Amino acid sequence: MFELLEFLFPIMFITVFVIVIGSFVATGVKGISEWNKNNNSPRLTVPAKVVTKRNHTGVHHHNHNGHSHRTTSSTYYVTFEVESGDRMELQMDGCEFGLLVEGDEGKLTFQGTRYLGFERE
Q: Which of 11, 41, 68, 118 is most buried, with most CB under 10 Å away?
């Protein structure tokens, strides 16, 4: 039984290590790919309406030298509807998020999935 564990532990350890590293690499590649796609997309300004707003708050726990720290971060999203009826959800910073109200109409400026601004009419 002990020989089996001695044999399986290195295999399980390497498998978990490869999965964790693979996840980091895949996330990085996805981020770089989206960044590149956005940079190669045209900047568009179109009539749009604010349909919904939402935010996601994450809580992170850290232990350092026996002290526990908790930090929170928020990510803000707004869904816009354009003239064709299509909807798109764009991420933005908290200041912009706070200025928008559901039902606002105006000109949305974006590049790919990157929010650039909204000017109320």
A: 118
Spell out, as residue ranges, where the chain has pLDDT lower than 70.
1
Lookup: tokens for 35: 């960044």
Within 10 Å of residue 103's Cβ, how many Cβ atoms?
Answer: 8
List strand residue ranges (DSSP E) for the chain, in order: 43-64, 67-82, 87-92, 105-111, 114-120
Rounded CA separation 51/28 (Å): 31
Domain limits of the chain?
1-40, 43-121
Q: pLDDT (tens digit, 9 = 90+) per residue, 51-71?
A: 999 999 988 877 777 788 888
- Report if pTM > 0.85: no
